[in-house]
Amino acid sequence: MGKKLIELQHIQKSYNGTQILDDLNIYFNENKFLTLLGPSGCGKTTTLRLIGGFEKPDSGQILFDGKDITMLPPNERKVNTVFQKYALFTHMTIAENIAFGLKISKKSKAYINDKIKYALKLVNLDGYENRSVDSLSGGQQQRIAIARAIVNEPKVLLLDEPLGALDLKLRQDMQYELIRLKNELGITFIYVTHDQEEALTMSDTIAVMNQGYIQQIGSPEDIYNEPCNAFVADFIGDSNIIDGVMLADKLVSFLGIRHACEDTGFGQKQPVDVVIRPEDIELVAPDEGFLSGDITSVIFKGVHYEIEVLSNGFEWLVHTTRFFPVGAHVGLKVIPFNIQIMHKPESSDERAVGLDA
Amino acid sequence: MVKKGIQRIYLIFIFLFLYLPIAVLIVLSFNDSKSRVSWGGFTFDWYIRLFESRSIMNAFYTTIFITLTSAVIATILGTLAAIGIGAMRKKGKAVMLGATNIPLLNADIVTGISLMLLFVRFTRLGMSTVLLAHITFNIPYVILNVLPKLNGLSQNTYEAALDLGATPLYAFYKIVWPDIRPGVFSGFLMAMTMSLDDFSITYFTKGAGIHTLSTMIYTELRKGIKPEMYALSTILFLIALILLLLMNYRSREDQINERRT
Amino acid sequence: MRKLKRQLCAGPYIVWIIGFTVLPILMILYYAFTTPEHRFTLENVLSIAEPIHLKALLLSVRLALECTVLCLLLSYPLAMILNGLKIKRQSFIVFIFVLPMWMNFMLRILAWQMLLSNNGIINSILQALGFSGVSILNTPAAVVFGMVYDFLPFMILPIYNSLVRIRSDVIEAAKDLGASNMIVFFRIIVPLTMSGVISGVIMVFVPALTSFVISDLLGGGKVLLIGNVIEQSFMQGMNWNLGSGLSIVLMVFVIASMAFMNSHTKETEGTAVW
């Protein structure tokens, strides 16, 4: 574990009377790849802009290396940002763009030239010094934006949906590139995205946000395998989420049947959400499953088939590598370990849950 | 806070700079005294006399006729030209835009004189020569307002519409027109404003006995401006103000509707 | 094929350009280089060197430069303030600056003449406040004042438009990289508004250089600009060849100053000297 590099304490922020963040508490460790993940409007970009210094919180504190930087303007912070739409300076060449921050901090000419060469090599664009910004593709512009930020040797690099404007193939390539960059530079990346796949691929730690609250913080594996509520389960990957009632420890009832599970401590007759990942369901003979139903659709996805099964009024989503024809009558089977039981949210607005990473 | 205050004062200063003379003229149009410096009480006399003055009303009709006609013709020609230029290759486009900029960048006096030389050689100066001259300097404003609106998606969607069986006219009306309409509109307005405010070019291309408001004012400068002129300008200004406010209001509603859909 | 058809739309306009832009320029060239007896001569063009003409041209250039600089100094902060207001409807700003044009500019300038006259309102207010009055009427300064008044919108609007187009994330990126407000202004905002400044300068400098009405109105016949000389040679002296010759000189002057502006800006754009 590294030490805490940035810490946000009791942050409140609202725009025009709309509360965006309400008592946000989160910290970011040194030398990690951290992702703020959530749907648009969840407050993730606001959080990033607070760290960058482009917004001031209504109340609360932002600590950097233990020092209070809440009121520090962006040009005095040791963080740099990669903007969603690159925000390159179109009136300058690539080299001038990259040199911008270095010239302000009055580095020597030789140093600046070395740095430009190094940064361009790092983002695989050697020899582009004198090109104009307009002559570059979107992906290349994004690399220059990254190069422009990292030459200043920030302790933290903030990335605001930097891959959002790129096409799928390029996005996947850039994901690996960013992981490589992070490892070579050895600095903290704070990454904002609404793309769960991006988050799972690149992050050391993911913080899932919704409506201004952090829903869950953890490693990609934790978040995927042990989502702590239905929102997270639904947002990360596909899930079957069913209303259920916890009858006793390790026994849950849903859709009119009873099934064993491994969760305890919910009390008796407690309404809960039952979450089962589609790849955890096995299609078997009708009498071998906990439920049986008819297949309503089959879609080939390459690695697996995506199959929908209608059973007791619920559309089950199942991922399987075996082919079944539409209309077949099948049974659904799941082992107790793969059933996640979750508390119902207290209101329709998801509330904050445990904040410890 | 201090910065905000200074900004306010500066805005007010510029606003006064632009509108103070207009206020003066409006006040003078109600002044019951021929003197320009002393206030002789409130009167509507100048407004009544205005409509009795043949020379002023003639100049007024001429001005309106030339402004409207030249703006309409320039808008039609300019919009067509913009569509044509939009479909051209780089080189043709550059040549056409260069030619379009000539009347814009050339000095008014040179444009006026060169047109006068042409007209004198081939015809007689009169109302039609003024009209031709106004159309000439109005077209570029229309083109420059319409052209940017054509650079969007309309090219492809227009072809898609033809592909789906639309006639070119229908495709133009359904696809291109909604895109360029604001540009055509502001081009028309710009043309009208420029035409109304023009003096130099009218001055050189008009025949004897024909007056627009601005050439009339110019000849009156030496004799002294008739107060009826202030009254007429006040009316024109108020009409423009109301029209522009209405349009502003309408386009705001359009925007709100757009956001809803 | 379809493209060709659409290009044909420009046909009437091309005919129009040839008839009413190219042909008139040929006419003026013909007059400029001939005598009234249709013989070739350079005299008309060279007469710019006559002291009275040269003096008028130099005065025109001086006043036009003063007017342009004043317009720029007034407009840039104004455009910044207007941009800072974050008005969503930019057409409203345009509206404010275009509206005055619907009242004849000669009348408006006449109104300024009344306001500025020795016993006019401005002087009365100044004297009531204990200042000594100003008397700038019938001086070159009054002409510059009138020009600034008439041409100011043509400087404000292009600068404002170019300011509005700067995306806020570009400013934020500069601050993020350590730029203070000063550096943001000089290294980001000024270069990115250069195109607006240039079109503003051209749109103010050219009419100011060639105007003849404002000097008539506010100069009191004492300020003779090159525009006045040309106008008089056409309307009073009836020497069209001389007038055409001087017009050609004026045209060349305008083209030269625009070419100078263009070459100058390309230099600074390519290699931003730090």
> Termini of chain C, distance in Å?
51 Å
The CATH topology of chain C corresponds to MetI-like fold
CATH superfamily of chain C: MetI-like
Q: Beta fraction of the residues of chain C?
A: under 5%
Derived from helix and strand composition plus strand pairing, the structural class of chain A reads alpha+beta
> What is the helix fraction of residues of chain A, given as a range?
10-25%
Range of helix content of chain C: over 70%
Nearest-angstrom radius of gyration of chain A?
24 Å
Give the overall average pLDDT of chain A: 87
What composes the largest sheet of chain C? Answer: none
CATH class of the largest domain in chain A: Alpha Beta
Describe the protein's architecture and organization.
The complex is a heterotrimer of chains A (357), B (261) and C (274). Chain A is an alpha+beta fold and 357 residues long. Chain A has helices at 44-52, 94-104, 109-122, 138-150, 168-185, 196-202, 220-225, 230-235, and strands at residues 4-15, 18-29, 33-37, 59-64, 67-68, 79-82, 156-160, 188-193, 205-210, 213-218, 240-248, 251-254, 257-260, 270-276, 282-284, 291-300, 305-311, 314-320, 329-333, 340-343. Helices cover 24% and strands 35% of the residues of chain A. In chain A, the strands form four sheets. A six-stranded mixed beta sheet of chain A has the order 6-7-8-3-9-10, with helices on both faces. Chain A is elongated. By secondary structure, chain B is an all-alpha fold. Helices cover 82% and strands 0% of the residues of chain B. Chain B has helices spanning 2-29, 45-52, 54-86, 90-105, 108-122, 127-150, 154-163, 168-197, 200-205, 213-223, 227-260. In chain B, helix 3 (54-86) packs across helix 8 (168-197) and helix 6 crosses helix 8 (168-197). With 274 residues, chain C is an all-alpha fold. Chain C has one domain (56-270): MetI-like fold (Orthogonal Bundle), CATH 1.10.3720. The relative contact order of chain C is 0.13. Chain C has helices at residues 2-7, 11-32, 43-46, 51-84, 90-98, 105-116, 121-128, 140-164, 168-176, 181-210, 213-219, 226-235, 240-270. The longest helix of chain C has 34 residues, at 51-84. The A-C interface holds A 52-54, 73-76, 79-81, 83-85, 87-92, 96, 100-101, 103-105, 145, 148-149, 152 and C 167, 169-170, 172-180, 183, 187-188, 191-192, 194, 269, 272, 274.
